[in-house]
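cache lookup: miss for this entity combination. No prior model stored, computing from scratch. Input as submitted by user K.M.:
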Amino acid sequence: MEILDLKMPAILSAGSVVGKKESEGPIGACFDEAVNGDDRFGLDTFEKAEGEMVRRAMNHALRKSGKTEGKLGAIFAGDLNNQCIGTAYGLSGFDTPYFGLYGACSTCVEGLILAAMGVSGGFFDAAACAASSHNCTAERQFRTPIEYGGQRSPTAQWTVTGAGAFVVGTGRGCAYLTQALPGRVVDAGITDLTNMGAAMAPAAYDTLSRYLGESGHAPSDFDMILTGDLGQEGHSILVELAAKDGIDLTRNCSDCGLLIYDRDHQDVHAGGSGCGCSAVVLAGYLLSLFEKNIVQDILLLGTGALMSPLAVFQGRSIPGIAHLIRITKETAL
Amino acid sequence: MEILDLKMPAILSAGSVVGKKESEGPIGACFDEAVNGDDRFGLDTFEKAEGEMVRRAMNHALRKSGKTEGKLGAIFAGDLNNQCIGTAYGLSGFDTPYFGLYGACSTCVEGLILAAMGVSGGFFDAAACAASSHNCTAERQFRTPIEYGGQRSPTAQWTVTGAGAFVVGTGRGCAYLTQALPGRVVDAGITDLTNMGAAMAPAAYDTLSRYLGESGHAPSDFDMILTGDLGQEGHSILVELAAKDGIDLTRNCSDCGLLIYDRDHQDVHAGGSGCGCSAVVLAGYLLSLFEKNIVQDILLLGTGALMSPLAVFQGRSIPGIAHLIRITKETAL
């Protein structure tokens, strides 16, 4: 049995902070805080701005949980920056043990799984998870500085400026972490730096199909199946891969990167991406659906392209990974 | 209580692969495998060589544990490369769930803690941990390519070329993971890219002093207290910080970065460093001391400088972190 029984610790609270574009999107009203002005949050570098979003998101989550940072056994967190500096500096003021993660855009779900394991295993009463990305830090690091104004490919995605944080613990919450299936590294041979969806979709399908096979569930057993940031290109590939195996994902499967922007009017090409994408969509939007009883049982797949410009320049393809977590309303099981 | 009771899962096996310089050092005979020729392991880039070391170290550990990769519930692993590509590519052939970590040089202990939590929490029968570094990948990424032949500062350390891997599980092993205290981000204001020891020592002392205070133990209760890669500079600072609080670390405290090289004859300046440093010293040397009953109870502090060249260029100081794990012979408790 590879599916992990997480024993249902609660998501006690969540915090979300986003940039201007995200606040203007279809779910913009769901977030705790949006930047006022440009995406520097009043600071002199984009990296500091990303750290500031992490700090604020964590503080929103702590405030809503009624816990102080000293009550957290650990924070599991990471981002897309080299050496995860958004997180390291953003959390350096928190007096809490820190487990640094690198799961690319799968970080939010990776962290939720580990926080849940820590709580359910009896190691912590409460633990936190945080994940962030910033469009300007990511574009400069992985592609070119945005000031170049380079032409973007139709398959390119728009890295979300946002940070999400969660407090997981014993007790009652708006939703519960029920099961998990951590992902394997899947390399489908993609070498296009501007098509992360294609690099991640095979990993998403690998994890999802293993979960469905092992659990005996059909996609229709869930209110939603959401991937983290496949975007339109990756989402289409995932649906096609599933269809080849007779699995219908056309009804209730979507992607956080498709929910966060209005692709017709926001010029984001294939949709949103980045560690912050699934983090803020879960923190701001999906958990509100649980609170309103609109959904009771969902699968969230954190999708990550373990993409390194250096490795791509050295001729290597881009490995993907996808971690699955099942989130339920307590009454649903 | 912040100290985690890990409930003593066993280190079932370990594997270590090192470069030429490490094989010529004082504990060079302890490692499973050393490179034959230059440190490229027959491959065309140093990054591929690092991945190859990870793959081989994991295979040594698996072989000695008698387990196949399919029996591992997860691998917790990371390295110093941007996007942890040594690990991502090195492990991409393993059919095992992968949790990517970024803890800089603290990664080995971070991974051991998480693997132990996964096993003791009942989530896995066995899990693995791996950490690696390569002198040539790290020097180019964090400072300058070694081909430049830049003058090295006396406080600079030599990044270890090596990978260590561990299988942790239920059952009997040569040593057991007993307690852990994960570290907090500690920023002592160091901005010198060539003095990682000074950036990490305050974090090491923060974690060690919290552990001693909370557990009621004195340093003399342990056969050894070992830090991961403080080197001579950081080690001296740690001993001084402790002395100010009346804690004597002069008797049984050392550093993996001081054990792995002969500083008088190997021109490594302040000593060894890198994720691979503590990983191979634990895998190759320390576990052999347990097997020979030379030690029965040690503290290992994985020390990490969360150093980003970009952040330093932007004028920020270098945060450190240190995760502590207590390793015992079963009979010792």
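stored under new cache key. Residues 46-65 of chain A form the longest helix (20 residues).
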